[in-house]
């Protein structure tokens, strides 16, 4: 495992634990409404589409496309120095929701809006794996 | 109709020294701004029965407004300290106006200050930056504050063909105005080339597309339109105010290129009974250049997608069809964080009093002031007038 110490580790909550457990298993697990079938991200105790009070957890494709991105030239902190310049992007999943992530295994200059990407997982510790995206082959 | 239009007036407005002010702390700047605004209004502190402040990063208090009241030994019956700035600054003006109109209090002092340039350690500044964004779903990816706004700028470029030169034109206009403002932190004229040649921070934002880091404070005094005549300075009336709130985190935005300024603006126009073509001078929140461009479109000064063409031919400069940020804005006048929007407000007052000196917009009668905060999250639009209408 590469050294990720000092990075801004997420702190899972009761509400988000199934998502992070999915990430640890290298699966993108998000919420879907059993009533209206709406997919949502991030996890919540309600459906934001129909207000249904319970959401199912489902494994999704991990495919999406870049809807915007930027290249960070000066890292947020020394722990991110090794990967600078790095791409912070918004990815719209094929199932609908948008999430922030990094585009990796790709020159920053090659990233474009509309680019098709799919999820990969970066292991930061025993408990935390972070979903990132790579260009679709 | 039960509307705030014409019911409340700004009767005092003043800024502290701004820019790099190492000889004063954030609390002192807050009180200094208050004293200057009271002096401008021609009243003493005993006449203030409402106080609103925003918290300071450099010298925070759990109950900030109470701390300032205690410091000044004033004893308000309406007292509120808010934790954020940007659009919130004008949201609290909305609250204060509502409180005055409903008789909750008579005279409200809004004073805000911070010392982000001189009062924070480098570690505090980095920690502040790293605290912006969703702890689980954004921050792990290492975004910076400029990066969040860059995502909106980049999306606008892809969707509408907006160019870095067009974003740069906004920074150039603000600097041109700051050059005419002796109080501004950055006054040397810059060109589009200077902006494009400055260091890339987060594509497409160059260093000169980003606002300043400053010390400073600013305050206003509000009272009812009936009482306004008793004050020393000519009143500036609140004609319209509207808010729009769409998200906190940029990854949850409904749309990257259209903000809730469209809603706040329409609500303010409706209350004031005016439209974009009636505005003589505008102060538009300019933390980063794309913010201004998107807001100009959402506030109806040009069609969606035409902001780039609107700003590149001098429309937003003094002498243009809509002078914007005539004090120099956050990009060139000063940006002490939470209080940032206040300087746009005091500039609007100066313009409407026809006291803006070398940067005065001739015959300015109606001004629009727009604040936003978060990441294009929370928006409030004010429309102010020299007359009640
Ligand atoms: Zn539902």
Explain how this protein is built.
Chain B: InterPro entries: Thiolase, Thiolase-like, Thiolase_C_2, Thiolase_N. Chain B: Keywords: Transferase. Chain B: One of its GO terms (molecular function) is acyltransferase activity, transferring groups other than amino-acyl groups. Chain B: Pfam families: Thiolase_C_1, Thiolase_N. The complex is a heterodimer of chains A (137) and B (389). Chain A is mainly beta. Chain A has one domain (17-135). Chain A is built from 1 helix and 8 strands; from the N terminus they run H-E-E-E-E-E-E-E-E. In chain A, the strands form 2 sheets. In chain A, strands 6-5-4-7-8 form a 5-stranded antiparallel beta sheet. A 3-stranded antiparallel beta sheet of chain A has the order 2-1-3. In chain A, strand 5 and strand 6 form a beta hairpin. Chain B is α/β, with parallel strands linked by helices and 389 residues long. Chain B has 2 domains: 8-120 and 215-236, Thiolase/Chalcone synthase (Peroxisomal Thiolase, Chain A, domain 1, 3-Layer(aba) Sandwich), CATH 3.40.47.10; 143-213 and 245-260 and 277-385, Peroxisomal Thiolase, Chain A, domain 1, CATH 3.40.47. Chain B is built from 12 helices and 11 strands. In chain B, helix 6 packs across helix 9. The longest helix of chain B is centred in the N-terminal third of the chain and has 16 residues, at 26-41. Chain B is globular, with a radius of gyration of 19 Å. Chain B starts with 7 loop residues before the first strand and ends with a strand. Bound molecules: zinc ion (ZN). The site of zinc ion has 8 residues of chain A, from loops.
């Amino acid at each position: 495992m590469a050294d990720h110490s000092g990075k801004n580790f997420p702190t899972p909550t009761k509400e988000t634990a199934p998502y992070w457990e999915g990430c640890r298993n290298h699966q993108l697990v998000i919420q879907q409404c059993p009533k209206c079938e709406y997919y949502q991200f991030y996890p919540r105790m309600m459906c934001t589409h129909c207000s249904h009070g319970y959401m199912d957890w489902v494994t999704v494709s991990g495919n999406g496309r870049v809807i915007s991105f930027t290249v960070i030239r000066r890292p947020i902190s020394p722990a991110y120095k090794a990967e600078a310049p790095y791409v912070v992007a918004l990815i719209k999943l094929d199932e609908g929701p948008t999430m922030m992530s990094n585009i990796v295994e790709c020159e920053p200059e090659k990233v474009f809006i509309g680019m098709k990407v799919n999820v990969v997982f970066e292991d930061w510790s025993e408990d935390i794996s972070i979903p990132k995206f790579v260009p679709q082959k | 109709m039960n509307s705030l239009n014409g019911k409340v007036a700004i009767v005092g407005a003043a800024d502290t020294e701004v820019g790099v002010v190492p000889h004063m702390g954030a609390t002192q700047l807050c009180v200094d701004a208050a004293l200057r605004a009271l002096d401008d209004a021609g009243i003493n502190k005993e006449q203030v029965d409402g106080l609103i402040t925003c918290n300071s990063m450099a010298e925070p208090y759990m109950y900030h407004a109470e701390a300032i009241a205690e410091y000044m030994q004033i004893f308000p019956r309406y007292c509120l300290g808010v934790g954020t700035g940007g659009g919130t600054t004008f949201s609290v003006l909305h609250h204060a106006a509502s409180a005055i109109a409903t008789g909750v209090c008579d005279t409200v002092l809004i004073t805000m200050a911070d010392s982000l340039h001189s009062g924070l350690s480098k570690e505090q500044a980095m920690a502040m930056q790293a605290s912006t964004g969703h702890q689980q779903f954004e921050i792990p990816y290492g975004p910076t504050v400029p990066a969040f706004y860059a995502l909106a700028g980049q999306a606008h470029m892809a969707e509408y063909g907006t160019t870095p030169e067009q974003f740069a034109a906004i920074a150039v206009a603000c600097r041109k105005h700051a050059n005419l403002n002796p109080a501004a932190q950055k006054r040397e004229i810059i060109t589009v080339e200077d902006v494009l040649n400055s260091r890339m921070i987060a594509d497409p934002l160059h260093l000169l597309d980003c606002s300043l880091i400053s010390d400073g404070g600013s305050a206003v005094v509000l009272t009812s339109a009936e009482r306004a005549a008793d004050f020393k300075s000519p009143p500036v009336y609140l004609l319209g105010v509207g808010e729009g709130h769409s998200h906190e985190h940029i990854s949850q935005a409904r749309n990257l290129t259209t903000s809730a300024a469209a809603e706040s603006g329409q609500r303010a126009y409706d209350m004031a009974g005016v439209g974009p073509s009636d505005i003589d001078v505008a102060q538009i929140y300019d933390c980063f250049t794309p913010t201004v461009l998107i807001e100009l479109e959402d506030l109806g000064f040009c069609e969606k997608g035409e902001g780039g063409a609107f700003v590149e031919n001098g429309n937003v400069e003094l002498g243009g069809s809509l002078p914007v940020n005539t004090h120099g804005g956050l990009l060139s006048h000063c940006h002490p964080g939470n209080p940032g929007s206040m300087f746009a407000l005091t500039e609007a007052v100066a313009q409407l009093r026809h006291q803006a000196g070398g940067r005065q917009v001739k015959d300015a009668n109606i001004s629009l002031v727009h604040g936003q905060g978060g990441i294009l999250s929370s928006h409030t639009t004010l429309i102010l007038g020299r007359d009640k209408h």
